[in-house]
From TrEMBL, chains A, B:
Protein name, UniProt field: (S)-3,5-dihydroxyphenylglycine transaminase
Residues annotated as domain Aminotransferase class I/classII large: 80-427
Pfam families for this protein: Aminotran_1_2
Organism: Saccharothrix texasensis
CDD domains: AAT_like
Domain of life of the source: Bacteria
Gene3D superfamilies noted in UniProt: Aspartate Aminotransferase, domain 1, Type I PLP-dependent aspartate aminotransferase-like (Major domain)
Record keywords, A-Z: Aminotransferase, Pyridoxal phosphate, Transferase
GO terms of molecular function: pyridoxal phosphate binding; transaminase activity
Cofactor(s) this protein requires: pyridoxal 5'-phosphate
Length: 455, 455
């Protein structure tokens, strides 16, 4: 509120200067800005959206999964108990924890006590719970492989937890830099609590950690006594390469807090994710308990419990496939793999060897990062949307600051191959115009005019 | 993490001393403790639970509401767009905001722009969003009518926002005390941002504010320049008394942030609530926007968006009843009214005039507060559950401290009239034993033995 005294009848007015400071932070405005551009230019080809393909969405699936889950419950509960479980307030940590634990055992070779699972209102809430629990005072800091998913940075802002970048390096995380950052922070009197990492097909880089790097990361985390927060939304979409074990599967020492999502493997609209927090927590009174139970206390004051109706939808899909989603999502895996190859091949066709445009070549996931010879900012994105008809994400959004970066992120998850081809033509036109090259030099015409106003 | 250096292979251990301090706070442990007692003594009669009656729960309703909502969307959207709306990621502020605004207009005579509505993962998330936005630094404090809903206190803890109690007084809020607390806080260099109030059938007191008090409260809030946070989960359950307008309906000056819940009027398992935040916010750059849009930024980093599947369930019920829930919930209103009368009558029968046991006599809602001549704490609740077979809530949970209070809360929403009668018999036995009176003096036998082990 303003501090000027008001008289009865005045309109209440608020001033951002007296509200939570992070509301002005780029991290909290990132999602809104990107959404607004997409809404404002609906005809632009969305190589920005990290949402899953809608090709496999069926409204009837929601009904079917709900029925499968209710029938499953009905095998050991009375009808009244089934109704209560799905429709009433319920267990804070969730009602599908056993199915989640079984899924982790079958798909990920991760063995955890279901009691260490907290089912959350999307994986975003899981991030918030973990960061809120770990942030005790102003000495605490979080480390994160940079560039970093903006949702992690945003959640950290909500609890006033600074995020210190760790370099990606050649192996998806530069372990020497990790150690250096930890020691520098400790020397300055701060407490590095954990390092956030997406080991499989990271958002935004698309890069993965190889097995040796994963093992060494676990050793470094133990030696330096920090937790690892492993976020794994894309692991199932590994193209035709073999999967590498998750950090949690390799974690014999409960060093890893594991974040899971069903947004891409079941339905985003369920908004169901989870966190595995099997660390032991000792209290001042000598008792010990699970870190999951501390997270549960926070959740009870944040969202009470995750909608059991939404959980039932996810539980039904898990049951329909014997708790194995790796097989159940094979069609999605093939679609994303096809799109990713088309994207990478398409970039190679448009920017031949020797070009000053380069890009990452991930083996799975949704994202490719393109490095260009000029600064990429939000204004350029708006120009791209308006004049060239193609959307992408300025990489600056994934750095903890406002600096323009000479790179942009492309996503191939929510588009057709035809859209990828046309989107890349438009992107190439933009890049060539911006680089001051004639479009003709690489054999593609300027598509801005034809793009404008296209449905 | 402990600060002792660990070697690779050691188990990671956490220590509550290095975690978020509020995890040890009574407010965050309240829900867990009360749930645990209930789970441990399933045979005890639950006069503690504030959950809605399950008498009207039907699994088929979920399917029916989903279909109604999808068909409604289908009238102006393509099939693909309907699937996207219900199953994909979506608008942060929600997809049923127009239906919510229409419901507020019809049921509450509240007129608001749908853009000022943020649909949330239960009303608890709405509380968190508002408190997070209002808490800028350590000077900020929140006021709340005391005794206070523990979920409000818990949400305030998550953002380190102190809660200052305001006396209930004779009219549901002591306005002189409100002014005194605001001025005392300001004199101490703090910023009172808002006062939290449940004007209709408050949890836990059961008390309501009359119309004159509501009008005066709005005047005081304007004169003292604080917001009011109005929480209205029980307004529809007003027995056979007339409804009094909500603060928001009387609010011509956008002084009230309104919190709504569909947990009691549709289904708790949907976990759908909302906040109306129509205040104007001016930015440093001279632009103005809605407070709802600031809350939306926080939500985007907390839960991204509320499950559109869950929103569709609520939207379907709204559509099925022309957006009027007052009529649609008349059967619930009659059931709660019947139970509340039985509870109050039953107390009068067991504690005749002149007794040192007194209680509130609400005209609606779920709760009655019983004042007794001895301190009521968690240990007494456990004894009551074990030896007397009846559950209730120690009023200490609704005060911002750990002091035992000479009062307990009874709830009548999730029990039958027979359970109310038997529960009151058991409670009377406990009270009489604890007061050192012979049970015979009020004509009821000791029921502890018969209660034990009863299903």
């Amino acid at each position: 509120m303003s501090t000027t005294p008001a008289t009865a009848g005045d309109l209440a007015e608020l001033d951002t200067g007296t509200l939570f400071g992070a509301l002005e932070d780029p991290a909290l405005n990132s999602m809104n800005f990107l959404n607004e551009v997409a809404i404002h230019y609906p005809e632009a080809i969305p190589l920005a959206a990290g949402r899953p393909s809608e090709e496999f969405f069926e409204l009837e699936d929601v009904h079917r999964y709900l029925r499968i889950f209710s029938e499953h419950l009905g095998r050991r509960l009375t009808e009244a108990q089934v109704r209560r479980t799905v429709l009433q307030y319920g267990r804070t940590k969730g009602i599908i924890h056993e199915l989640v634990a079984e899924n982790l055992r079958l798909d990920e070779d991760i063995s955890v006590d279901p009691e260490s699972v907290v089912v959350t209102a999307g994986c975003q809430e899981a991030m918030f719970l973990v960061l809120r629990a770990l942030r005790a005072d102003e000495r605490d800091v979080l480390l994160a492989v940079s560039p970093t998913y903006v949702g992690l940075t945003g959640a950290a802002r909500l609890v006033d937890l600074p995020v210190r970048p760790v370099r990606t390096g050649e192996h998806g995380i530069d372990l020497e830099d990790l150690v250096a950052v930890i020691r520098r922070e400790r020397a300055a009197g701060r407490r590095p609590r954990a390092c956030y990492v997406v080991p499989d097909f990271a958002n935004p880089s698309g890069l993965s950690l190889d097995l040796a790097t994963r093992r060494r990361l676990l050793e470094v985390a133990a030696a330096e006594d920090v937790l690892l927060i492993e976020d794994n939304p894309y692991g199932l979409f590994h193209g035709d390469a073999d999967r590498v074990p998750t950090l949690k599967a390799l974690d014999a020492a409960r060093r890893v807090v594991y974040l899971g999502s069903f947004a891409k493997s079941v339905l985003p609209g369920a908004r169901v994710g989870y966190v595995v927090a099997d660390q032991r927590v000792s209290g001042a009174d000598g008792t010990t308990g699970l870190f999951a139970d501390q997270l549960s206390k926070i959740k009870s004051m944040l969202t009470v419990n995750t909608s059991p109706i939404a959980q039932a939808v996810v539980g039904g899909k898990l049951l329909a496939h014997g708790c194995r989603l790796a097989g159940a999502t094979a069609p999605e895996r093939r679609l994303y793999d096809r799109n990713l190859r088309r994207l990478v091949t398409g970039l190679a066709e448009r920017f031949p060897p020797g070009s000053d445009v380069t890009w990452t070549v991930p083996t799975g996931g949704f994202f490719v990062v393109v490095t260009v010879p000029f600064a990429v900012d939000d204004r350029l994105l708006e120009r791209s949307a308006r004049d060239y008809g193609v959307l992408w994400t300025p990489m600056g959004h994934f750095y903890d600051g406002v600096t323009a970066v000479r790179a942009l992120r492309l996503s191939c998850s929510a588009v057709s191959v035809d859209q990828i081809d046309r989107g890349l033509d438009r992107l190439a036109a933009l890049i060539n115009d911006r680089s001051g090259r004639s479009a003709g030099t690489i054999g593609h015409g300027h598509l801005a005019d034809s793009a404008r106003g296209e449905p």
